[in-house]
């Protein structure tokens, strides 16, 4: 008898609301209930929803439109799925649209149908192994064409994605059984992966991987330690000064430090230390945006936010004369960012001296 793996949401939701939800994000208990019961019904921990909130805040997105998904990924070290947060295909399309250069997308082109029976084990919602055998008919591949304006011309970017290379497994890297969604919507899920691949080809700097591509994958195989792909906006130094004066500095973002590699934490700590000595906050934000990506960038921006706010608050308590900025105190930037970074230092240095 055939058993299909099911990733159904638990019937009883009892995710406690962390105090930071109200203090940092200004959400009520009713809004939290909507997030746990409607927006992210499969999330198993409050921390997963907090990561989604942090991402949406950094990207200025409405979390109730579900621009990100809580995605289970297999951890060989733990022997179970762990919760991560990835942008949805809608969020990736939003990112492309924000560039002002996205010029449309063609309908998917499908390869021939293939029928295959998958047999193996998967872990259910109670983390118990179950045997399964399921037959799925799916398109062998899909090709999606995305258009971008390049040099004033509408250029096409087409990528092919193969179903058996893209589908999500229900039992980790050693399982071949598809997840319930890939069994139910074999074409729909592949279409999303095709869109994401073509959007990355057209917008390689702006777009990353989609949740639909990561669901059921192994976290141990990820070369990039970032859990979230995205960007964080640099704050205006004047805004930090105003906030410090009125005593309404924004609370720090909630970030799970276990998701930040130690080498990144060390690099950010050194960046903050040198920036505090030099006073070159805008240059530091430029450097961070060029150096880090994803959750690493969110962490770096949050640390700079806290340090810059503390520095400005301290400066208002005493009449401290600003000294000229020592540009050598900043860490070296990569070649593509050097010119912009040096210009920012010079501009800020002139402002300090005037």
TrEMBL record:
<dbReference type="InterPro" id="IPR018330">
    <property type="entry name" value="RecT_fam"/>
</dbReference>
<dbReference type="InterPro" id="IPR010183">
    <property type="entry name" value="Phage_lambda_Bet"/>
</dbReference>
<dbReference type="Pfam" id="PF03837">
    <property type="entry name" value="RecT"/>
</dbReference>
<dbReference type="GO" id="GO:0006310">
    <property type="term" value="P:DNA recombination"/>
</dbReference>
<protein>
    <submittedName>
        <fullName>Recombinase</fullName>
    </submittedName>
</protein>
<dbReference type="GO" id="GO:0003677">
    <property type="term" value="F:DNA binding"/>
</dbReference>
<feature type="region of interest" description="Disordered">
    <location>
        <begin position="311"/>
        <end position="354"/>
    </location>
</feature>
């Amino acid at each position: 008898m055939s058993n299909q793996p099911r990733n159904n949401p638990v019937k009883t939701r009892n995710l406690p609301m962390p105090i930071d939800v109200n203090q940092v994000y200004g959400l009520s208990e009713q809004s939290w209930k909507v997030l746990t019961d409607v927006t992210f019904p499969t999330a198993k921990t409050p921390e997963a929803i907090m990561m989604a909130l942090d991402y949406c805040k950094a990207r200025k997105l409405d979390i109730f439109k579900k621009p990100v998904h809580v995605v289970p990924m297999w951890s060989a070290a733990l022997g179970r799925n762990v919760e991560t947060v990835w942008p949805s295909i809608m969020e990736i399309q939003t990112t492309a649209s924000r560039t002002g250069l996205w010029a449309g997308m063609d309908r998917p082109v499908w390869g021939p149908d293939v029928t295959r029976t998958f047999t193996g084990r998967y872990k259910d919602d109670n983390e118990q192994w179950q045997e399964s055998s399921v037959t799925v008919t799916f398109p062998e591949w899909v090709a999606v064409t995305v258009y971008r304006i390049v040099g004033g011309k509408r250029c096409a970017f087409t990528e092919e994605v193969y179903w058996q290379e893209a589908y999500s497994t229900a039992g980790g890297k050693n399982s071949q059984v598809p997840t319930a969604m890939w069994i139910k919507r074999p074409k729909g899920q592949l279409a999303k992966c095709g869109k994401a691949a073509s959007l990355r080809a057209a917008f390689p700097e702006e777009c990353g991987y989609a949740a639909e591509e990561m669901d059921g994958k192994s976290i141990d195989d990820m070369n990039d330690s970032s859990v979230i792909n995205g960007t964080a906006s640099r704050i205006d130094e004047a805004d930090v000064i105003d906030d410090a004066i009125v005593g309404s500095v924004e609370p720090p973002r909630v970030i799970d430090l276990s998701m930040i590699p130690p080498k990144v934490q060390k690099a950010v700590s050194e960046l903050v230390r040198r920036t505090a000595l030099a006073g070159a906050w805008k240059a530091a934000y430029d450097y961070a945006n060029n150096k880090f990506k994803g959750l690493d960038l969110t962490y770096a921006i949050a640390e700079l936010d806290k340090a810059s706010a503390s520095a400005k608050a301290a400066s208002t308590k005493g009449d401290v004369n600003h000294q000229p900025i020592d540009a050598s105190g900043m860490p070296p930037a990569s070649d593509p960012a050097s010119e912009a970074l040096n210009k920012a230092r010079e501009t800020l240095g002139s402002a300090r001296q005037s």
